């Protein structure tokens, strides 16, 4: 069974700072997901990565398959980025579902 | 647009009552999943289904039941046997072959 570790668990930063959230997993995967969970619980899917790098607005996600590691970056952070960010490892085929990290609670202060 | 719909977003129930959470997808996905999230913990798998009329227990299935009578629908019933039902519940779906998973918005259940 895959084990997924996220760091840091909590992160408080000032508006405008560059943010990095890390995710490592123990078993090779076919894809890795980054999710954003807003206060109140609503989930938004940010990225699905199989290799390399993806960018959407101020969000960048990278994955290193050999090192079993992924990072989520936020450039020019804003208070509206405050949320819980969750990575999820998909071991392939979809049949066994996903293994989720515990999440990183990000607070961006004005 | 295709996607997954969970309803309701917030749900309140009295202790001892069964409650059913809805999950519908129009993505033509074969596989569907239910997860539970508790404070300070990652999402954990409750049940999953790879095909209509078939489903498998996940890591924390006790106190829950599901059905998969239609490909589009995978409702989760939280029974009175579930000792700590208050939690956030997330539904997901994927094709069995492709790895791309799609997620619902989630339902926050509070039992009082």
What does this structure look like?
The complex is a heterodimer of chains A (110) and B (112). Chain A starts with a strand and ends with a strand. With 110 residues, chain A is mainly beta. The mean pLDDT of chain A is 91. In chain A, 0% of the residues lie in helices and 58% in strands. Chain A has strands at residues 4-7, 10-14, 19-25, 31-37, 43-49, 52-56, 59-64, 69-74, 83-90, 98-100, 104-109. Chain B is mainly β and 112 residues long. Chain B is 0% helix and 50% strand. Chain B is built from no helices and eleven strands. Chain B is globular and about 40 Å long. The chains are: A mainly beta (110), B mainly beta (112). Chain A binds chain B through residues 4, 30-31, 33, 35, 37, 40-43, 45, 48, 50, 86, 88, 90, 92-103, and chain B through 9, 31, 33, 35, 37, 40-45, 48, 50, 58, 88, 90, 92, 94-106, 108.
List the helices and strands and how they pair.
The complex is a heterodimer of chains A (110) and B (112).
Chain A: E1 4-7, E2 10-14, E3 19-25, E4 31-37, E5 43-49, E6 52-56, E7 59-64, E8 69-74, E9 83-90, E10 98-100, E11 104-109
Chain B: E1 4-7, E2 10-13, E3 19-25, E4 31-37, E5 44-51, E6 54-57, E7 64-66, E8 76-78, E9 87-94, E10 101-103, E11 107-111
Parallel strand pairs in B: 2-11
Antiparallel strand pairs in B: 1-3, 3-8, 4-5, 4-9, 5-6, 7-8, 9-10, 9-11
Average pLDDT over all residues of chain A: 91
Element order of chain A: H for helix, E for strand: EEEEEEEEEEE
Topology of chain B as a string of helices (H) and strands (E): EEEEEEEEEEE
Fraction of residues in β-strands of chain B? over 45%
Q: Which percent range fits the helix content of chain A?
A: under 10%
Low-confidence stretches of chain B: none
Number of strand segments of chain B: 11
Roughly how many Å apart are the termini of chain B? 36 Å
In angstroms, what separates the terminal alpha carbons of chain A?
40 Å
Percent of residues of chain B in helical segments? under 10%
Strand residue percentage of chain A: over 45%
């Amino acid at each position: 069974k895959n084990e997924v570790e996220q760091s840091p668990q909590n992160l408080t930063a000032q508006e405008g700072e560059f943010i990095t959230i890390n995710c490592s997993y123990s078993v090779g995967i076919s894809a890795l997901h980054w999710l954003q969970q807003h206060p109140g619980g609503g989930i938004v899917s940010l990225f699905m990565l199989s290799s390399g790098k993806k960018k959407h607005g101020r969000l960048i996600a990278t994955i290193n398959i050999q090192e079993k590691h992924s990072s989520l970056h936020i450039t020019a952070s804003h208070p509206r980025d405050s949320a819980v960010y969750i990575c999820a490892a998909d071991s392939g085929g979809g049949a066994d579902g996903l293994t989720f990290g515990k999440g990183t609670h990000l607070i961006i202060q004005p | 647009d295709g996607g997954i719909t969970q309803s309701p977003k917030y749900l309140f129930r009295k202790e001892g009552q069964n409650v059913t959470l809805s999950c519908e997808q129009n993505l033509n996905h074969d596989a569907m999943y239910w997860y539970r999230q508790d404070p300070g913990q990652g999402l954990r798998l409750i049940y999953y289904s790879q095909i209509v009329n078939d489903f498998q227990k996940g890591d924390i299935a006790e106190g829950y039941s599901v059905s998969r009578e239609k490909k589009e629908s995978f409702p989760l019933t939280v029974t009175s046997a579930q000792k700590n039902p208050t939690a956030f519940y997330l539904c997901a779906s994927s094709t069995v072959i492709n790895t791309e998973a799609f997620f619902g918005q989630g339902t926050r259940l509070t039992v009082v």
